[in-house]
Amino acid sequence: MSNVMNLTAGRDGGGPSVENVFYSVKEMVEASESDPEIHSKSKYFQVNGFVSWVVDNNDRPMYYLACVTCKKKVIDEPNGFRCEGCQKSYKDAVPTYNFSFKLSDYSDGVFVSCLSESGEVIMGMPSKDYYALV
C-alpha cells in the first residue's frame, strides 16, 4: 500500500500530544458522543482509516478566500478584498481549504471537517495550487 500516509505529518504540533492508542471510527464516534461538551472543544483521535469520499458540492467550493492577516473569510470587492475581522482592505487573499470528507474503516464511516493545513495533507497539494486549477 504505497499510497497510505500519516495525516498528522502536516501538523505543526499545535494540537495536544496523542496517546499511542488507535481507535476504530465507531469507537471514535462513541467516545465523542459520550462527551457532553464535544461541541465546545476539539477532540483528537488516532484512527487507522481511509478517505472514502471527499464532499464536492458545486454550491460550496472546497476552499474560501482568507485574509492575509487574520485568516478569516474575506469579501470580494472591485479593488481587492475586504476583511470584516481586521476592518481593512487587501489587494490579495489566501485560498484556504475548508471541506468535509468521509473517514472510513472496517467498523463505520463518519464525515469530518478539514481545514487549512490538514486539507493540504488530504488533497496532496497546497490550497493555492488547487485554487489555480479550479
What does this 3D model show about the protein?
This protein has helices spanning 25-33, 116-123, 127-133; strands spanning 22-23, 46-47, 50-54, 63-66, 75-77, 80-83, 88-90, 94-104, 109-115. With 134 residues, the chain is an alpha+beta fold. It has 3 helices and 9 strands. The protein has one domain (7-133): OB fold (Dihydrolipoamide Acetyltransferase, E2P), CATH 2.40.50.140. Residues 8-14 have low confidence and may be disordered.
CATH top level?
Mainly Beta
Low-confidence stretches: 8-14
Instruction: Note the run of SSEs as H and E.
Output: EHEEEEEEEEHH
Roughly what percent helix?
10-25%
Sketch the major β-sheet: 4 strands, antiparallel
CATH architecture: Beta Barrel
Task: Determine the number of helices (DSSP H or I, runs of at least 4 residues).
Answer: 3
**Which radius of gyration do the C-alpha atoms yield?**
17 Å
- Total count of domains: 1
